Amino acid sequence: MNENLFTFPGGTADASGDNPFDLSGFTELTGSNTQNPFADLLAGGEATEQPPAEGAGAVQADDSIPEEKDETDQNHETVEEDESHEISKSPAPQDPQPKSPPAPKSEEDHASDKPEEAEDNPLLAAMERQEEKTAPKVAEPIFAQLPVFSYNGSEAPIEDTEQTFDELRLSKLTDFPEFDEAQSLSWKVVYGKIVKEIVLPKKTKIGQIKREIETSKEFINALKKATDKHPKCLVKPSISMQKKGDASAYKGAFLYLSEAQASPKTITFIPGRDGKVYERRITGAGEFVTPAENITVLDEIRPGFHPSLPRIPYSLMEQAIGLFRTMMRKGKGRQPAEALVHFYWDKQEQRYFIRVPKQIVSGVSVDALLDDEELMTSDRYIHYADLHSHNRMPAVFSKTDDHDERATRVYMVVGRLDRYFPEITVRISNGGRFLEIAPEQVLEMPPVGHFPPEWLTQICTDAEGAFGVAA
């Protein structure tokens, strides 16, 4: 079979076909030949095969430097020199060293690689630059919100952002008199995760601080990570110094005038025998004393009664009113008469009971005889309240009542007993100083009567759609 199955570049097989793999037709292509498609790979291989010039020079320099050796090591060193010459003449190809897998990086390593990653990755860097540009626009609705004054659970928007922090303090004095001393008040602004202390409240404007925080990179970055994307800009005052009776170096409160006069303070407050508090000021012109109002160095006190015992049961009040209604026809000539009962608290049995003292009554008066020594002297009982009736007259304390009811306790009067629902008035006496209080403070409310539950289904609280007709 003389037909050739292969055709080779550079020519064909000879006619005889004896040597179909004759290589004389091939041309050797080197790495420098531009027609070679593998020129880059060959060029790299040639570069790696050439020994570095510095390394070769170093080996020759080491061979040219004679060193003194011990005779015992001459033979050994000669062998090493011969081996080194052979290595320098025919350098062995360097086998590529197996690379070990990189060690896992920690979070800190990854964090440190981010700037380099952004520099190496132009797309990532461009995205970050774009995000920095668009972030203020996205946050514009947040920036449009007014700052909020926040103190002791009270919050209110601050309309005038161009006022200083001290001007805000002055505007809040009516509601918060403790703001009177500017040096005792400190301010800070809490905006998301950013907290800024105010050093100069008299010169710093609220809006200025808000804008400084909003334009800071720290605030924008914190806003990106925050779960609350609409944080409030809270303006928070706090009392950093509070003194009782010694408000400042120049102001104070004293119990006696002599103490105020001996004090170096120029503004002092002293209670008078008439129950009023007086303000005393000292200047180079003399001593000034006037009645005082809104004294911030003193505690705010409101008059009232805070019971230590439970309320009087309605059942006892029901019994007392039953007695009083009966007395409406027990006076002389079957005329209405008044009556008096005492309410006692038994500390041992933990309950109230009624004591009716011996008394001489008429239509306008009660003269009682307090003759129960045990109740009056024993520590077991507390005389809690007095209740007397005004028969068909209004439930109003008379001047006689004011004279008789000077002991410190609760006093009650019931009137209009001729009506279906009588009247009742309750007051306390504090050493002869009276204050009217709500009856439910000391009296149990009447019980709710039982009624059929279906009555409630007949009552509508919403006019729309009631009785099936639109309002």
Automatic annotation (TrEMBL):
JAB domain ranges (all copies): 323-417
Compositional bias annotation for Basic and acidic residues: 105-115
Entry-linked InterPro entries: JAB_dom_prok (IPR028090)
Protein name (database record): Mov34/MPN/PAD-1 family protein
GO terms (BP aspect): proteolysis
Region (Disordered): 1-119
Hydrolase in keyword set: yes
Parts of the chain that traverse the membrane: none
Pfam family of the protein (one): Prok-JAB
Keyword terms of this UniProt record: Hydrolase, Metal-binding, Metalloprotease, Protease, Zinc
Compositionally skewed regions (Pro residues) per UniProt: 93-104
Keyword Hydrolase: yes
GO MF annotations in UniProt: metal ion binding; metallopeptidase activity
Biased composition (Polar residues): 27-37
